[in-house]
Every structure is written in C-alpha cells, then in structure tokens.
Amino acid sequence: MFTTYQNLPENSRVWIYQSDREFTEEEVGFISTKATAFIEQWTRHGDNLKGSFTIKYNQFLMLAVDEGFNNVSGCSIDASVRFVQQLETELQLDLMNKLNVSFKDGDRINIVKLADFQKFVSAQKITKDTIVFNNMVQTKKEVETQLEVPVNKSWHQRFLSVIK
Hints:
This protein is of the alpha+beta class. The chain is about 30% helix and about 25% strand. The chain contains four helices and nine strands; from the N terminus they run βαββββαββαβαβ.
C-alpha cells in the first residue's frame, strides 16, 4: 500500500540505494512510476506493507516501510532487492555497490570507490569536515538527521587515522 514519503512516521525503516551516477529527469519519472507500482503490491506473507520511496539529489533511491503497520520479512526484503536489481538492468546503472562512497564537494556530489576515497583522505582532499553520505542510516528520522554528516561523525571516520 503506497503512501507519500512525508506521511510515513519517523521510525519507518529505510533502505538507501546509491546510484553510481545521477539519474536523468526521464529516469526519475521512470523510477517513480516503477517504485509506486512496486510498493502498491509489496506484501509480507500476503499482508500489505505501508511503504513509500523518495529520490534525493537525483542520485539516491530510498525505499521506506512503516513497520508500525506491518513488519517486513525476509521475503519482502528480497522482493525489494529484486525490484532494485530490475531497475539496475533497465537503466544500466549500479544501485547496489556498497563499496562506493559519496561525498560533497561544494554543491557537487562525488561517488568514488572506497579505495579512491582512502587515497583522497591520505592526500587530504577529504578532511574531517567533508560532508559524506552515511548510507548506514536505517530510519526516516536518521535520514533526516544523519544522512549528510561530516566525515568525523560517520562510519567514514575510521579512514581519518591514515592522516598524520
């Protein structure tokens, strides 16, 4: 059962899929149509899930479920992963690579491989104050308060130890 993202409670569970490139305007429309249709039929063992999605910066697809309505199950999570994999195939992009790291450079969002991120830290092109996207957040409230944080306030901080 689809609802608008804004109407979901703060404790709704969220999964973030980071694209390896920015979505085009046409792709945003395509993803929105497909995500709405998927969420309309998304279930847990035959019971409806109350869910939604949002697209942030034309680069992050976020699926969300109100677990106060019905909890997700392994099967419903698997269904959402298959949905995202289908989008990857149809749009020729990578949404599942957890070894990509995104950070801001002014208004620009950069996505690099983890090894390159570490090199940028070593070269001090990325500092403790660089804004990174913390894709480890799990709730709507965390998306709103902890998605975009300085390196030293995220899991990325472990790479700062290479700076002498």
